[in-house]
Amino acid sequence: MDLDPPPPAALSRPTRRILVPDSSPYDLEQLAGSWEGRSKVNRLLFVANSSPSLAGPALTLALAAIKEATLDVPLYENTFHMYRQHISAIESGDEQDPTAVAWHGSVKGNEVSLDREWIDKAKREAQSGLDKLEVELKGYMTNLIKESIRMGHRDLARFQYRIGDLQGAVRSYTKSREFCTTSQHVLEMCLGVIEIALDMSNYAFVRNYVVKAESAVDAAQASTNGNKSRAAPVNLPGMVAPAQDPIEAAKEKERKIVHERLTVAGGVAFLGSGAFDKAARAFTDIGSEALNAPVGHFIPPADVALYAVLTGLACFDRTQIRARLLENANLRPFLDLEPYLRDIVRAFYDSKFKEGLELLHRHSVRRSRSHLPHPSSSRAALLTRERIKLQHRPLLDVHLAPHLSALHKLIRSRALLAYFQPFASVSLARMAAAFGTDEASQHPEIVELIATGQLKARIDSAHGVLVAKRKDARGEAFRHALDEGEKMQKRASASQLRSVPPCGFLQGLEKSENLGELTPGSRGHRMKLLQADIVVKPAKGGSGQQQHLSVQEA
């Protein structure tokens, strides 16, 4: 099974222009320190393609990361071409962003040069390593040893991933599935494919292999539980309970770490595919075992906190915000890495929508130096820096940026609904002031919520108020009572028609000469019996002159 190839690195000027001023606390080097391997390269290239202000530093870090973590010569050459093209644009005047120009002035004369020595060395290592692994795999295939064949495919996949052959790496991983003999082998294969699929942003493939990996974990857990039950130690009264086996404790911790990694990968897949509610539940269900583990998660812990807060505010109601974001003990270590995120959640939970939205609003990152708070106001300065930091982080995040506008719209819509819920009517001017905007800007949002049925209200333009559509509870109760009365009448009439009539009532029935039909004494009653699907027959062996007849339903 093949993955869709990643789009080639854009060699032209970036289509999105996110300007990051010098005053911004967005620290690219600090963030890049939390990224690893090819994921670090992909994230840096995304930043370079999105922001001309950070393109120079991002490409410089990307070139170093490629040489450190990969043997991908084509990627290195393409990245270097982007680097030189960015410098040429600044020198020719095509790129006039002040931050980019200032960066060029600081590195002028010390620009990165093409490392041909590394290119030659990487090509030799890539070719020799690939030949060696393919020869070893052919030998394993000849000997027909399943475990050796599986390990040969696995090692080949890892090396192909390192040299940039992502399609070949996926094929080698999937070929090893045939030779997996334990659930642990299947899990190892799935984790390798998930890592590649995340780097390629193929979220459907990630979700598919997360499900397979979870099945492998469950199978391994069931096997372990079965072995424990068969070898359970005897613990008689008065005996000290045996201590937990250190090996079993280590295995249990490893299972928790794997489960958390799969939960994060599934959350990223849901986020990338636009299923924000499922993503929010995944990110808030995560544990903290893998936080300090050597393998860690597929994404940095700070990103887990950011994704959890944004998707949670977009999808959770007030009760869920408290339970899953504010009082979630498992999420707390992640939020401690980004304290300002907790302030945002608290603002929305306390219905301080203006304060909460200001932290998410784009205008907070476009302030000039003259509008920054006075240095003596440390709290205000910190709040402003956090606003800027928050705004640039999502915009320059490879997984979150494509969905940021949709998430902001959902967050604002949910805030509008929460604000209006306790009111029968509210002034539009007062509502706009509560959200830090004006009536003209807020009017289309309210109209859209009413049109989609999310907001049960109407706009009174003459008086400038929003009026809730309240149900008449008393009228509804009367209508319900009348409907139930009519239903009871119909059921009672049908029950009477199907009951056995008294003997004296049918004495007037006489047998007709035409095909043995019965003719009632009352034609109207005969029609009612026919309408009720009741067939009247004479008693067995009797005649129409008998004192009683039997009545039978068809």
Automatic annotation (TrEMBL):
- The gene designation is SPOSA6832_03998
A Pfam family cross-referenced in the UniProt record is PCI
Keyword annotations from UniProtKB, A to Z: Cytoplasm, Nucleus, Signalosome
Q: Which Gene3D superfamilies match?
A: 1.25.40.570
Protein's name according to its UniProt entry: SPOSA6832_03998-mRNA-1:cds
Which InterPro entries does this UniProt record tie to the protein?
A: PCI_dom, Rpn7/CSN1, Rpn7_N, WH_DNA-bd_sf
Q: Does the keyword Manganese apply?
A: no
Species of the source: Sporidiobolus salmonicolor
* Every PCI domain range: 304-473
Protein's cellular compartments: Cytoplasm; Nucleus
What family is it from?
Belongs to the CSN1 family.
Keyword flag Acyltransferase = no
Its cellular-component GO annotations read:
COP9 signalosome; cytoplasm
